[in-house]
Here is the input.
Amino acid sequence: MGRAVMIFLILFCVFSGFAQADVSPLQGSNRRIQASLLQGRTYENFLCQNCRLQGASLKNTVLKLGTCRYCDFSEIDGVNLDARSINFDHSKFRLANLENADLSAVRAYFSNFQSANLKNAKMWGSDLRYCNFENSDLRNADLSNALLVGASFQGAKFNHATKLPFSKEQALSKGMLWEK
Here is the structure.
């Protein structure tokens, strides 16, 4: 792309109010995302693959119409994250704090939520096939109507308010831990 065209696009974005969306730090592949750029903002129409966001703060962040496949969200602070309908296939959320996050209707096929805090998280209607929820905290979480074929739950905590697409007895047989 020529220099003049690039300058025109940058000026167009700045003066038309689209600068934030067009220079999203979530756009790209095979890179580390600077954690300080993400908290409390809204990102739309992005494609992020093989990106590393370990330890980033996504607190009160809104993600819309995007894809984050094969990304590493380990140890993120995702309290109140709104990521409805995002594609997180093959991503890592190990030790992530996703308390009160809205992950409804996400696609997270083969993702790892091991030891994640998912208290009060909404994950209803999500495709969570073959996900790892071992030792995660699912108390008060809503996983109703979620696809959980092949998912592992050994040591995951749940309680009377956890909404699962299977019974308490089935949860216990999967190795989940009942907590009051």
Remarks:
- The beta strands are 28-29, 42-44, 47-49, 62-64, 67-69, 157-158, 177-178.
